[in-house]
Design goal:
single chain, 169 residues, mainly alpha, 5 helices, 83% helix, binds protoporphyrin IX containing FE
Length: 169
């Protein structure tokens, strides 16, 4: 048994489950709840983003998934030199990795926006000032495209990772 590959697969898949599971929970349920619950939501976001380990655990799982994924790809492709890279399987894992990288960049933007919202939430007392309202609107406008792109690219990454071995083209 190849213990290195086994360990990398476990790190990759457990990290990926945590990363994508948390991103989907945030994008589908927690984000909309925060936007719908005004002051209470802002208070929740302030605590969630600043006083829990969510951001650090999320970062650790994202980097663990990416590093283990690229390492596995290196092993499978004999460090980018074998015909495996141009096979359906290799291309399938490559497409999945491409979607995961877009999910990574948009997830990073999403996290930064959530931290901005949480910081604004802790400053706003009652009705936001015009300046605070402007900052809130700018973040929400960017979230309007960042969140769906993040959701769809991560789902597509999972789709290609799960099916790559069975693809024929
Ligand atoms: C959203 C992020 C990701 C998730 C959820 C994910 C998930 C998975 C899963 C579930 C498998 C097992 C599939 C199977 O054995 O048939 C897998 C395998 C694999 N993944 Fe990912 N993956 C992600 C990102 C990446 C990235 C960025 C790379 C980098 C190239 C990568 C490269 C690979 C490779 C090469 C394998 C095959 C490993 C082997 O030979 O056993 N993955 N991935």
């Amino acid at each position: 048994m190849n213990y290195l590959t086994l360990a990398l697969r476990l790190i990759h898949i457990i990290g990926g489950v945590f990363w994508v599971g948390s991103a989907l929970l945030m994008n589908f349920f927690i984000g909309p709840t925060l936007r719908a619950t005004g002051d209470a939501g802002r208070q929740f976001a302030g605590h969630f983003m600043a006083r829990t380990k969510f951001t650090s655990v999320m970062n650790a799982s994202v980097y663990a998934t990416l590093i283990a994924g690229f390492w596995l790809y290196g092993i499978d492709s004999q460090w980018f030199s074998s015909p495996w890279m141009h096979s359906s399987v290799g291309i399938g894992f490559g497409i999945g990795a491409g979607f995961a990288l877009v999910g990574f960049v948009t997830g990073f933007m999403n996290g930064a926006n959530n931290r901005k919202l949480a910081a604004l939430g802790s400053q706003i007392q009652g009705k936001p000032t015009p300046e605070q309202a402007g900052q809130l609107a700018a973040v929400q406008k960017q979230q309007g495209w960042v969140v769906p792109v993040n959701t769809w690219t991560l789902l597509l990454a999972v789709f290609f990772m799960a099916t790559a071995r069975y693809l024929v083209f």
